[in-house]
Amino acid sequence: MGLDSFSKSKRSDEISNAVINRLPKYYRCLRELLNNDILRVSSKELAGLMRTTASQIRQDFNCFGGFGQQGYGYSVKTLYTKIGMILGITDNYSAVIIGAGGIGMILADNPVFTKRGVILRGVFDKLKKYIGKEINSELTVRSIKDLEQFLLTTKIDIAVFVDYELTKSCVDILLRNKIKGIWNFTGHELRDVDDTIPIENMYIEDTLMTLCYQIKQKEE
Amino acid sequence: MGLDSFSKSKRSDEISNAVINRLPKYYRCLRELLNNDILRVSSKELAGLMRTTASQIRQDFNCFGGFGQQGYGYSVKTLYTKIGMILGITDNYSAVIIGAGGIGMILADNPVFTKRGVILRGVFDKLKKYIGKEINSELTVRSIKDLEQFLLTTKIDIAVFVDYELTKSCVDILLRNKIKGIWNFTGHELRDVDDTIPIENMYIEDTLMTLCYQIKQKEE
Questions:
Q1: Which of A30, A54, A67, A155 is most buried (CB neighbours < 10 A)?
Q2: Rounded to a whole number, what is the distance in Å from the CA of B32 to chain A's nearest CA?
């Protein structure tokens, strides 16, 4: 199967969430290989890094039309680029953060956005102690009161919700302005958002609970 | 099926990860109900909150021996307590955070630990600007050099890794001192940890990538 068979891939709605959720992990592993100047990788080697099986990897890649040639392994750079394209990393979506406290400022000042091709356009809060605070040379925290005006002139794709009270007060404004996706760090379910908008919920406490559960199982 | 049938539940190693991963979400939904003084809930009502089906909920709870009585719905408080017990929330595990920068300080000063019954015992870093910094009335950031000494007198169950370089320098010390689980925020795979120790990896950038993927799918 050649590298150009990408177009022959399954329709995306046939691809399971489990495969989709593994793609970012592939992407990270491949970046690690590139950083170490490793240019070709077999499914067996990749399986070792991913802590999975070579057959799983071949199966996953086949969902997207396969990326490799039997016996030659995969080109790390091609794989990295193609998976990045599938993940929409080259699409330069724009984002705002709602809530400068807690993880808000940490996210704003973190390479996570630029590394993933997302352009952070603004950070909003209602508290005086945050408004005007400089995040980097290009961004300062703005007043939430200016959000609606801001959205008239700036197209925003992704709302990153950090502060729950603030989110409740401005989620309608963002929806009216046709945001395309929500990254939710508030720790609360967002019930008033219709099902057509993709939401990724980051419930960090859930993973702590899952960890405690696993520890408990080991002890029993 | 009565409330006491808990002991008749399946053995935990038969329960799928998908069910386990839903338990924290049940736990959050039930807390929300308790906060609103709602004491009984049907599987249908719970399904609405969880954005799933009543049959899914009955199936999940059956894995643990079921918690309800046909036609009467579930006691919210009993469910909340039992799911908390299953998740190990009543076990009071102790934790240290390795890395006070970035999300380290945010986590340390966050109710996530106490809310989940985990006792934060220490925060460690190597940088002077963090060492000695007060987190709350009971905790200040300690020097990473003191970690080994600290572990001689304090039993630690969970290591929360925030700073990757720091993690590499002290993971062996923690493993020697028999930590039971790892909560990994470094954004790097921890390859030198054997498979017997449960690890929960928080790759926040993965969820951003998954979100971008979903947005892209909607656009096509």
A1: A30
A2: 9
Cβ neighbours of residue A110 closer than 8 Å, sequence gap 6 or more: B102
What pTM did the predictor assign? 0.79
Strand runs (DSSP E) across chain A, as ranges? Answer: 40-41, 74-75, 94-98, 119-125, 134-136, 139-143, 158-161, 181-184, 199-201
Chain B residues with CB-CB distance to A103 below 8 A: 103, 106
The listed range with the strongest mean pLDDT (A20-34, A162-176, B74-88) is: A162-176
Who among A32, A87, A106 is closest to B102 (CB)? A106
Residue A178 CB-density burial (10 A; 0-12 exposed, 13-18 middle, 19+ buried): exposed
Query: How many Å is the maximal CA-CA distance in chain A?
Result: 62
Distance CA A86, CA B198 (A): 31
Q: How many CB atoms lie within 10 A of CB A205?
A: 19
- Residue A143, classed as helix, strand or coil, is strand
Find, in chain B, the residue whose alpha carbon is nearest to that of A205: B112
Neighbouring C-beta atoms of residue A51, cutoff 10 Å: 11
Tell whether A134 is within 8 A of chain B (Cβ): no
Cβ under 8 Å to B: A residues 53-72:
none
A200 touches chain B (CB under 8 A): yes
Write the burial class of residue B132 (CB in 10 Å: 0-12 exposed, 13-18 middle, 19+ buried).
exposed
User: What are the phi and psi torsion angles at B107 (to 5°)?
Assistant: -65, -45
Radius of gyration of chain A (CA): 20
- How far is it, in rounded angstroms, from Cα B71 to Cα B161? 46
* Interchain contact B26–A (C-beta under 8 A): no
Maximal CA-CA distance, chain B = 62
Point out the residue among B27, B158, B210 whose CB comes nearest to the CB of A21.
Answer: B210
Q: What is the ipTM of this complex?
A: 0.79
pLDDT of A105-114, one tens digit each?
Answer: 889 988 888 8
Cβ under 8 Å to B: A residues 4-23 = 12-13, 20-21, 23
